[in-house]
């Protein structure tokens, strides 16, 4: 069973309640294989690793240096998940000391184009997102200031 999940990967069966289900909308049920794959490939470490491996094959130590903030354990887990899902190929070279290279499989390379589209979208909209964050932060601060001046808040002090 996958760590962090309550069920092993499964295939979502079509039930009577699913009859009008549009396949273009992924199923959010926990036991849905699509959701489980999305959970693995769309996490922050997987996205970064796939983006880096699109440029060239890298050794573990090169990936660790390039992916700022990732622990050795998390990078190892990420690479194992990506390898298990057929997105990354692990090549062990019979030399001393041992050398292991990681590269994208054709399946992983096909995912990279989707990730690139997401990065392009982010670059296009980062100004709007920053403005939305600023507006949200201002609104929350104003609401907190108003709440602090109400009689109920004054009684708590």
Automatic annotation (TrEMBL):
Residues 32-130 form the HTH hxlR-type domain. The keyword DNA-binding applies. GO terms for molecular function: DNA binding. Signal peptide: none annotated. It comes from the Bacteria. The keyword Transcription regulation applies. This is Transcriptional regulator. The lineage of its organism: Bacteria, Bacillati, Actinomycetota, Actinomycetes, Streptosporangiales.
